[in-house]
């Protein structure tokens, strides 16, 4: 049974949309309808915007230590409700329950990180040129913020926006994905039950473009943060430009994995295979272009194929399942298209390459070998459980191929040569680089891409600073 009641949160009140519009929420593993997701009307959005403006005035004047206390209480409530929220996440998104629990653990950590870091929004004193003058640089909340997030990490995507804003002293109006609303609602209930003042956090659902146009057309939000695809990010940035909103854009990528012949191949195989098929490959930092040096290429393909074949695919609520379904039926033909295009370009399917069963949106863990750079999957992000592997000869060659796309989110390198690692860390045009391990996302470190993968950071002091603005004060005779 689906644990969460889906409602809008406007000015501290949980409610349905005023016009009664809604859409069904499906379980991607079974295709059953879990519940209905209410849509906010234009009037509802106006109320949410007004509440956000009023909530900001209250939250801005709440001391950082008191903000921290409320956020810490919310984090404790999330821990207490971990099993229920993780179940909600798995039912609506499909990932294995164990993965959902790990994600919710990350949500708790992010909440605590920003709660504590909000107490350290330091400014500075600048020595003056004139005697008797004091010059101060201060940090203050940027204002009411808004956010729009994707479905693939229903907890992580939401909390990075919400906790970052609250830690900095901003209010937040957020539209989570209508495909995964329950996790966001459950997180918001924790904040409300922790004593968050009315209007500080508002949550709405609806037709995405209608909601974003209405919210971004308002002068009330002074900051917009988005996690999602590159085309949608560009669209939202254009809308935000009309009112000069500051933006943080966490967009898609196409992460290269570079395996040199001096690497620990067993480690590279274990790390990359597990990370590739996590969340059925529906991860913006998922390894998606495998470049393996000639000498170890054959053994790497064989080892990766064996690991993909051994994965247990199924309903995320079942014990032992290691990979769940894709989010929606629309993604199945996309995977087939990538595979067929690669085959037409001369690639080999070493395992997978087809849908599993006829109920639920399951696609087999797929490995493609000898994939040429001209294949579509080498230039477009697959966002699914398909791993294309190709080979390379030299350092300069693989750097050029890795940097050949306009994306620049994450990259991964495997080598035992420290000098080589340092050189390629410098050469790769990505915002995140993992050497011999994939842990490029933690609460205390910046997360974000470059080029068409977006700009700005979430996490770390950079993530807090995204919700702060700088004020310079100079005074004398006081």
Short description:
The chain is an alpha/beta fold and 478 residues long. The chain has 14 helices and 20 strands.
Structural summary, described in words:
It is a single chain. The chain has 478 residues and is an alpha/beta fold. 38% of the residues lie in helices and 21% in strands. The chain contains 14 helices and 20 strands. It has a 7-stranded mixed β-sheet with strand order 14-15-16-13-12-17-18, sandwiched between helices. Strands 9-8-7-10-11-19 form a 6-stranded mixed β-sheet, sandwiched between helices. Strand 8 (172-175), helix 6 (181-193) and strand 9 (201-203) form a beta-alpha-beta unit. Helix 2 (64-80) packs antiparallel against helix 4, helix 2 packs across helix 6 (181-193) and helix 9 (265-277) packs across helix 10. The longest helix has 21 residues, at 97-117. The model has no long low-confidence stretch (mean pLDDT 97).
- Integer count of domains: 2
Percent in strands:
15-25%
Task: Using the 3D structure, state the CATH architecture of the largest domain.
Answer: 3-Layer(aba) Sandwich
Structural class: alpha/beta
The CATH top-level class label of the largest domain: Alpha Beta
Task: Assign a percent range to the helix content.
Answer: 25-40%
Could you give a short account of the major beta sheet? 7 strands, mixed
Within the CATH hierarchy, at the fold level, what is the topology of the largest domain?
A: Aldehyde Dehydrogenase, Chain A, domain 1
Q: What is the helix tally?
A: 14
Gyration radius from CA atoms, angstroms: 23 Å
Specify the oligomeric state: single chain
Biggest sheet strand line-up: 14-15-16-13-12-17-18
State the total count of DSSP E strands: 20
Average pLDDT metric: 97
Terminal-residue CA separation = 65 Å
Q: How would you describe the shape?
A: globular
Low-confidence stretches: none
